[in-house]
Design a protein that fits this description.
There is one protein chain. The protein has 5 helices and 14 strands. By secondary structure, the chain is of the alpha+beta class. It has 2 domains: 140 residues, Hotdog Thioesterase (Thiol Ester Dehydrase, Chain A, Roll), CATH 3.10.129.10; 153 residues, Thiol Ester Dehydrase, Chain A (Roll), CATH 3.10.129.10. Strands 1, 2, 3, 4, 5, 6, 7, 8, 9, 10, 11, 12, 13 and 14 form a 14-stranded antiparallel beta sheet that branches. A hairpin with a 5-residue loop joins strand 13 and strand 14. Helix 1 runs antiparallel to helix 4.
């Protein structure tokens, strides 16, 4: 049955290199752990029948909130289960608990939903069929199908939004988009890759979170933490030996949060026949914290160009939509 298929990663203690200067564990470190659990459970499931061998590749991560910060010295417990399968994809839900090993207190840090597709080990461009799972209740399959259709539609929409690039500006003014925008360039090595020689989704997400964190820190010059990540779509695979450029720019600020758009472009330097392409994109939301860990107001972003103003308005729309959704969930049901 689907709901007995579970993977629990070995508890991991959080070390100083997993965290920022204030001792809060990076969102990217947590995203990477989540993706490792998802990759294990979905690859195991897709190879559970005697057929062609495959590796499950990450296609999408749904919006995820970081519910409480994890700190150095705490232990992360990651558990994953398969909650739905379609003909060619697997939905995995992952929970992360943080445990204070001095007091024994446990807190839910994160809940995430990831979608994987099985790619043949012999031919990486061939998507294989997923063995079906057995549902304990019929509604589980129906609810899963609705989630599957919704994410499929959203993936198509974001694919067309992916044209623009982040251009550097000389001597930008503080609080402008250009002032905090940042890029990170990374050569993809063997330790970043799966058996296929393609980058693990978790590695990409960790780099995306690093860039978003630099943008947020440059903008408000305080301790910052990842509050949430909007859905991340992986449009195309990234091969070993490629150079990836991860660019981040601030799109919107509310009183206490910052939205940062992160774009990942892959440059096939080892293959002159292929052009540079957009591999992934996402919006990260950060908050600024005082030394005591209380949220601080953030400096307001000053959009200058028409494009920046348009992105600010779009970011505001997403922010208000999420706020309304949260208030709707918080209100007692009649």
């Amino acid at each position: 049955s689907a709901f007995q298929v579970q993977v629990i990663l070995l508890p991991q203690i959080m070390r100083p290199d997993d965290a920022n200067v204030a001792g809060n564990v990076h969102g990217g470190t947590i995203l990477k752990m989540i993706e490792e659990a998802g990759a294990i459970i979905s690859t195991r499931h897709c190879n559970s029948q005697n057929g062609e061998r495959c590796v499950a590749a990450l296609a999408r991560v749904e919006r995820t909130d970081f519910l409480s910060p994890m700190c150095i010295g705490e232990v992360a417990h990651v558990s994953a289960e398969i909650t739905y399968t379609s003909k060619h994809s697997v939905e995995v839900q992952v929970n992360v608990l943080s445990e204070n090993i001095l007091t024994g207190a446990k807190k839910l840090t994160n809940k995430a939903t990831l979608w994987y597709v099985p790619l043949s080990l012999k031919n990486v461009d061939k998507v294989l069929e997923v063995p079906p799972v057995v549902y304990s209740r019929q509604e589980q399959e129906e609810e899963g199908r609705k989630r599957y259709e919704a994410q499929k539609l959203e993936r198509m929409e974001t694919k067309w939004r992916n044209g623009d690039i982040v251009q550097p500006v000389l001597n930008p003014e503080p609080n402008t988009v250009s002032y905090s925008q940042s890029s990170l360039i990374h050569l993809v090595g063997p330790s970043d890759c799966t058996l296929h020689g393609f980058v693990h989704g978790g590695v990409t997400m960790k780099l995306m979170d690093e860039v978003a964190g630099i943008v947020a820190a440059r903008h408000c010059k305080t301790n910052i933490v990842t509050a949430s990540v909007d859905a991340i779509n992986f449009h195309d695979k990234i091969r070993k030996g490629f150079v990836i450029t991860i660019s981040g720019r601030m799109t919107f600020t509310s009183n206490k949060s910052m939205e940062i758009e992160v774009l990942v472009d892959a440059d096939p330097v080892v293959d002159s026949s292929q052009k540079r392409y957009r591999a992934a994109s996402a919006f990260f939301t950060y908050v600024s914290l005082s030394q005591e860990g209380r949220s601080l107001p953030v400096p307001q972003l000053v959009p200058e160009t028409e494009d920046e103003k348009k992105r600010f308005e779009e970011g505001k729309g997403r922010y208000l939509q999420m706020k309304a959704k949260r208030q709707g969930q918080a209100e007692p049901q009649p």
